[in-house]
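Sequence of Bifunctional uridylyltransferase/uridylyl-removing enzyme (Micromonospora tulbaghiae).
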Amino acid sequence: MTSLTTATGPSEGQAAVVNGVVGVPGGIGVAARSARADALDAWLCRAFPERDGVALVAVGGLGRRQCAPYGDLDLVLLHAGVPGIDELAASLWYPIWDAGLRLDHSVRTVAEALSVAQDDVKVALGLLDARHVAGDPALTDQLSRTATDHWRRTAIRQLPGLREITAARWEAHGELAFLLEGDLKEAAGGLRDVGILRAIATAGVTDALRPAVHAAHRRLLDTRDALHQQVGRRVDRLVAQERDGVARLLGAEDGDALLRLVAGDARTVSHALDDAWRAADRLRSGRHRAAPGRPLRRPVARDVVEQDGELVLARTAIGARPDPSLSLRVAAAAAATRLPIARATCEWLAAYCPPLPAPWPPAARAALITLLGAGSGLVPAWETCDRYGLIDRWLPEWTRMRSLPQHNPVHRFTLDRHLVQTAYEASRHTRDVERPDLLLLGAFLHDIGKGLPGDHSTVGAPLAEAVAARIGLPPAEAALIGTLVRLHLLLPDVATRRDLSDPKTIAGVAERVGDTGTLELLHALVRADAAATGPAAWSGWKGRLIAELVSRVRTTLDTGVVPAPPAPDPALVAGPLPVVHLGEDRVSVAAADRRGLLATVAGCLALHRLEVISADAATVDGRALVECRVQPRYGLAPEPIALSADLRRAVGGDVSVIQRLRGRALAARSQGAAPRVVWHREAATDAVLLELRAADAAGLLYRVTCALDDAGAQVRAARISTLGGDVVDAFYLVGGWPSDEERARIEAAVLAAV
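Predicted 3D structure, token representation.
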């Protein structure tokens, strides 16, 4: 049986055996890909049963001679109606499958292949890569020439359908330039989009394949080669754990440097495709003309007009000495009208628009705010300006932040896109604040300190304040921008890690915020930041906690009085014990006062796949009250009757439930970096705060509260904050500040439980 095994290692010298004689080389680069194509061609020629009226045609990567180390084979068995073609095909396909190769195959006449291409634009594009491998070359030549001619004649009609398919793919896979773990092939700006550019260029619509696109394409192919060899199998998604290895194979400094290179290449491809789509639109629609040979021009803003669906400069703007704010005003007009800026206009602005003075003139500052608040028009306008180097002229800090990876797993975007996306999300909340302009600017600058040593909020505050001053904000407003950056994590951190019923918590936040206007800006900024970060950064319970904190702080700022903590649920302080109430996201338990009740409730909830977000324990009239906010782990809601029954039995001291809890707890120890305990002396009114930072694991709260109970520490409240795979759990321990020996003993018990 003919066999073919692909290369498994990263070395250039490693090769797989083809039919026991010829190797398929590994390696990265144009030469390696060409060598793989030669080896596969030779192997397929030997495996091909020679017969008149039959040809073997390669499409896809082999057709383009761009074979990845673990790529598929895309083959067409072309025939002229010869008998026994199915048996001939089987004699060819089965050896390929036996060799362990993935195969996409078809058996067609020339007429059948062209008929399918007429109905399926993806097939039409595939035939543009058709290349003869074996058999009758006249058949391959007929198919290739006819398919190319047909595409050139029908491309304008087929491109809208192709664009819809492409948009759906982008929706599913995102934008490669901004994703931390993007798909090199399917994401926007990836290898699949280069194929579309090649098809548009073949149709003669525009010069889509410029030298910069060719270079970006080659580097993306090299990256995929390295990824295949690093992983040892076909994979197109550049995941975080493989980045450093791929970077080494490519000679890049590290994984972050590689990600920035990929982002730059993806941007080049995306921008070229945007231009190509617009050229196709103009060609297809035949825009109305004011007179023969004269395009219709419509003013849209000062010095900016629309022409053929794009924004260009008014003739007066080109003839006069350029205004330094012109590029910003063009960008703002593009974002507001949702119209693209013409390539020639961007090139002119990059070449002739003078730098902005410091401070900026009012027109430039107003244009920036208009741009940031333009909603869905912001991102494409910003990207176009960034493509031509205009952003760096406005904000020199942008060079450092462009394509900077964010290693926190909750983030989906690189830093630059995250900042722009946060401004976009903030535009949804401008009616909630008195100063929408400061909200937009604060949202755009909130993470400016990332990538620099130290806490990014602290480091970023003076940087943001300096940018705000350079833009031309008065000193008080520039200082407020610095405050927003410094405090942009305050509300979510306190809401998820501190006891909101503790007056000291509320008073501390009110003191740091200072006034209700700043509080409103921070609340809007928190929501925008979370939406721009990704789905893991926000949830209903987190939103409710932050809203509760904001409400209490606002009352304190308005009245000067910290609101009293809410009274216990009356249903829990009356009636026979135990009492169990299950709400939508709350579990409340009342039982006879005893040590370890909070641990028992937490363990029972973990047993039923419920994550505890916050927990409060109190004693009222001799009965212990435990109230927990919960959410289902993995989205699996528990069966309420079984949960209620287990809670009643557990708080009543049922030994069988306790044994189940201990068994599960021992089997679910957390993994990862070493846990850490941090003590806070003045964070609570009547308690000491112990903060545990550790890897997340089922039953962690149960184990830690048991350990605290065994160590003699009484927990009156707990707050659980999950950050990706880690948690920051805060425990309020009743009593004064422990001695050094007591702290060491409690800390050792907690760490042992983790």
